[in-house]
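explain this.
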Amino acid sequence: MAIKGSLKEASLPDVLQLLSMGKKSGCLGLSFHDSFGQIYFDGGRICHASIVNRPLDTENSVYTLFTWTSGTFNFEPGVEPEDGAERVSVDPQSLLLEGARRVDEWSLIEKKIPSFDVVFSLDRPRLMMNRDPLSPEQEALLPIIDGHRDINGLIRDSGLGEFEVGKALYGLLNASFLLPVGRKRTTPTLPRNASPLERRELASALYRAGMHDEALREFRALVEEAADPVASFHVGLIALRQKEWAGAVNAFMTAAPNAPSKVSLLHNLALAYEQLGQLEKARLVIDRALGAGGSTDPLIQLQAAVVSMRLGDFQAAKVRLSESRSLWTTNPPPAVWFHYAAKVAAMTDDPDRELLLLAAATETHPESAVLLNNLAAAHLRREDYESAKDAAEKGVALAPEVSQLRRNLAAALEGISRTDRTTQTSSRS
C-alpha cells in the first residue's frame, strides 16, 4: 500500500522510523521545490538513496534530505533501485542522530545563506591576511568562488554535498572572506536546455517512486518535444496504473515503431486490451509477445493465462499457469499468480484445488487482503464458518476499508451462530 503525505505534517525522520519498524521494502520519493530525491528500503533498512542531479552517496543524500522540512513524500512498495546502483545496508536509526545535528546546524546556515542562487566572490586582501587554517572543504571551494558561480554551481563543481558546502561558506562568511555579488535567477533541478536523456532520467525517477502525476507531466513533454518512444511507453504504463485503458493502448501504439523493448510493450498492450474487454486482440498481442522471446518471462505467461481464462479456454489457462509457475525458481510466485490459479480452479469445478492454492497463498503472502478475502469466501462456500471467520478477521485487520471482507466476516459469524442454534436445538430434542 502506498503512503503519501506532506513533510510539514510528518517529518522525514518520522517517516523513516515508520518504514524501518514496518520492515518495508520499496522506494520513498521526496519532492521539494524543483528538487527530487529517493530513498530505497529493503526489509526496513536503507539500501540506496540519491538526489536527482546531485553527486552524493547514500548517506549524504539522506543527510541532505533531512534538511527538506517542506514538500511531499510518497512511498511505493516493491520498487527496487536501478541495476548498477550503489547498494548498501544501513539502519535508518543510525542516521537519525547525525541527521538531527545537521538539521540544527543547517538552521543556522540558512540565516546567512537563505538561497542556493546566491553568488559570492572572495575578499582576497582580507583572505591574504588570514593566519588561521581553513577546513579541507573551504580549501576546495576557494579556487571556484569566482563571482559567477552560485551555490548550486559550487556544489556541482566541487563534488561536495550541500551540507559541506553550506557549512564551509558559513565559516568563510563569518570570517568576512566572502563578498555577496547577487543572485542567479531561477536555478531549477533541470535547466531549460537539459538534454532529453537528463529529463528522461528525472521522469523515470519520479515514476519509480510512485509520483505518477509528476512523471506523467515530464514524459508527456518529452513525447511532444522529442517524440521519445521510451517516454510514450511510460505514458502508457502510467495510464495502466490509473486504469485509463484506452489511453494506455494509444500510448503503447505510439511507442511501438521505435520501442526499445518489444516484448515488454506487447505484454502491457495485451493487458490494456484485456481490461478493455477486447480479448481477441489481447490474445493476438500476448501470443506475439510469447513468440518474440517472452515465453521465459513468468509474468507474460501469466498474462497469457488470464486472457485464456477470460476467453473460456480453461485448458490453455492451466497450461500457461503451470508454465508461469515453473519460471519462478528462486522466489515463490506473487500473490496475483495464486489469485488467478485459484480462480481457474473454481471455474473448472475443482474446489479442493482452489482451497489448497488459497491456503498456500495466504501462507506465502500473509499481507494480501485480497487473498484472505478469497480464502474466506471459499470456506463460506464449504460452510466452514470458523475457518472463514479466521481468514476474514485477518483480512479486516489488514484492510478494514474493504467492504467485501466485512461482509464475509458477518456471513461467517452468522453461520457460526446458526450452527450453534441448530446444535442446541438438536441437543434439547
Summary: The mean pLDDT is 90. The beta strands are 3-6, 26-32, 35-42, 45-51, 72-77, 118-122, 178-183. The chain is about 60% helix and 10% strand. The first helix runs from residue 12 to 21.
